[in-house]
Design brief:
With 653 residues, the chain is α+β, with helices and mostly antiparallel strands. It has helices at 32-39, 49-56, 61-102, 107-122, 150-153, 162-170, 189-198, 230-251, 253-271, 274-292, 297-308, 320-329, 363-403, 409-418, 441-461, 485-500, 521-538, 554-558, 564-582, 586-595, 600-607, 611-625, 632-648, and strands spanning 126-133, 138-145, 156-158, 174-176, 202-210, 213-222, 311-315, 333-335, 338-345, 348-356, 427-434, 465-469, 472-478, 504-508, 545-547.
Length: 653
Amino acid sequence: MPRDHAQPAARPAPHADEPGGPDAPAPPGVETPFLELLARGASADAYEQPVLLARAEGAPAGRVATLERAKGLALRVRSDLEDRRRREAELSALFETAHDLAGLRDLDAVLRAIVQRARSLLGTDVAYLSLNDPARGDTYMRVTEGSVAARFQQLRLGMGEGLGGLVAQTARPYVTDDYFADARFQHTRAIDAGVRDEGLVAILGVPLTLGHHVIGVLFAADRRARVFEREQIALLGSFAALAAAALDAANLLAETRSALAGLEHANEIIRDRSGVIERASDIHDRLTELVLRGGGVHDVAAAVSEVLAATVDFTESAAAPALEESRAEGHAVRHGDDWIAAVAAGGEQLGALVLRDHPGLDPVDQLVLERAAMVTSLLLLARRSAAEAEQRVRGELLDDLLDARDRDPRLLRDRARRLDADLDATHVVLAARIDAPAPDAGQEADARRRLWSAASHLAATRQGLAAARDGGTVLLLPLAEGDAATELARRTALHLGTAVHEAVTVGASAPLTHLTGRPDAVAAAYTEAGRCLDALRLLGRRGDGAAAEDFGFLGLLLAGERDVTGFVRRTVGEVVAYDERRGTDLLRTLDAYFACGMSPARTKDALHVHVNTVAQRLERVGRLLGADWQSPARALEIQLALRLHRLSAPAPR
């Protein structure tokens, strides 16, 4: 057959890697309709239209195949774009959630925001959050969103019970598309009843964890069967992690700020190591300035806190093992996430500087903390020396007043004014002594030193004076207007007893005025206070406080100056005043009653009145003096007061 009339040879189908293969680029113009569909975000069904149209127009099979390939590529691009948009939307929602939660400070508001966001992100009917209760060993419902059943809102789940209990126990997410048909977790009557009341079917639970600890469970649930995709589980897990961090921030805001300050400080060290040396120089200058200007231990702690960008506190008590280790080694030691630097002088422990929540402490910062502890011990010793010097000066002034050695009123006032004391005010002299017997002489001396120290501190804070004398302590304290020597003595006994952890008995003098003009008055008042102290101890009233006026007629014997008028006024003053106001004869009736041996019948004969009149007058006396006025002790005091009243009354003309 001639070559011009020969049949063309059959062309083999193109290979996938050859031009025209399944993955070969589409001819120009074929992808245009699909690009337009992508541009306007058309639905997946719309991508069939170009292929159907080509077939309807009778396009060659090759073109239809090319359109099919272009459609497949376009649908893949569309799927990728949708995945990206969905991921971007989820990330945006998480970012917005983090932004919102960062501004929350109230714990309840944080929890409500958590469940609201969870429900919104997953589009479920209900979202709820449970928190673990370490004390009871279970987890309980704290906040719900979309819930309508009261029993469900009050559920408590034991560890391993129900889906939530299993999540809390294992710290792993669990999901079920049909709760009642799922046998992987333990069903209980109470939990199933609550879930049934709420009508829940599909439930997803993810743990809220802080470190390795589960603090609760975050749930999303529907009232219809639903399959939660892997991406949704991961999304809720990410949100749960963010929610747990927000919970931690709400509960421990101060610790979080400290941690952030520590992170910032660590970043500064990494960026510029020379900043460490500058900080060390800065703290050295600051501590030197604090010492020179007389700063206190809390000023030192504040300065170190600022330099170390962390919280440093001075405390008189810290973790005993770590404190003892720091004192023995002379270095700061780590205790958990804290660092403890002992503040000591010689063998005496004065306290500790504690660097809070800063486990990663570099050597330079550790040295800063140790130097600060040394400066703190020096400041404490200086403050103690100054306090002891002031106590000695106060004691010397009181000794001079007791011994009447310095009789110049102007000089006494000047010395007192430098100690912030006013000798022209009304004062009370107080004699104080510890009553508990000491096992040996050394412990007795130590108890006396503690009493003197406590009394000196009390005198310094009350603008008074104190000195050690006669195995105890004597105080000279101002008496406030409206106050009484008895009340001051009782308060002082309670204060000193609390300070030294022993029973302290306090005797008080009568109030004194114009001390500088009466140099012997303080010594006499101290004698009176000592008598009251001895009387209290003899009466078995150890640990109490009293003045002479508290002992009735015995007070006349105890008082340095016999206050006869005051005794009469305290004993029968109400009767005297009643007679003066009403013109009655209660006082004369009372005198006759005792003179007649407390017999109403003989009293009426002595007064020439009816016995009923005597009874009425004695009843009135009882109302004025109290129901126990005829008891032996009171009757003795009243008879003495009546006699002193007669003796002090002006003689008739």
